[in-house]
Design a protein that fits this description.
With 246 residues, the chain is mainly β. It is built from one helix and 25 strands. A four-stranded antiparallel sheet has the order 4-5-6-7, with no helix packed on it. The longest helix is centred in the N-terminal third of the chain and has 8 residues.
Length: 246
Amino acid sequence: MKQISVLGCMIALVFLTFAKRPLETSALYPIVENQRWGFVDAEGRVVVTPQFIFAGDFHEGLASVRIGRTHEFKEGYIDITGRLVIEANLDGSGDFSEGLAVMARGNKYGYIDRNGKSAISPQFEDASAFSQGVALIKSGGRFGFIDKSGEIKIRPQFVIARSFHEGLAAAIILEAGELRTGYIDKTGKWILSPKFTVAGDFSEGLAVVGTGGEAHRGEDQAVLLSGNIKYSVIDGWGPCYFKRIL
């Protein structure tokens, strides 16, 4: 949904992904008719009549929906029958992952459970879905990680970071006026030092990284890349399997 997507969209400008992971969705697909969103099944039959200003994909059996008018709306969740199971009283809503979903009240972000109850109170400047037991959050202008109790597991210290995949997360620091990316484990320890210009998530033991060129901070969490960046594929220990200049 609108507010929750900011973090993901900005970070997407920075990181490359070695292999796209399929989203966990139901066999329902969003459609738009007369500027209203609904869902059809794999045969194209309408299951949920188009009625929402916007609707997200189904995750863990629930989909976030936007109700009201274009500039005056609230968000909640429906099940696969189209029944509103979590009241539309949220200012922002994200996909469910590991039993929790990001939600917003005003300009603060927290998490709710599948019953719509607050699991972690809205307190963060930004937040993303849980992955491998922890979630990326922004506090005090920096990114860190929390567990499902809301406890800080890795203190906010990174300019930008990614969610954990296969036990590692890409994280960016500012060094000598330039942004550098490396990989941390769940204790916050650097497993691969921040020496890359750009780096993607690990998938099946491999990740795409870029060296050379420059990375600088842009507006709204964006990172600007310039120069001759050389891309290669590494494993969790750092060796390069092959190189290619894009």
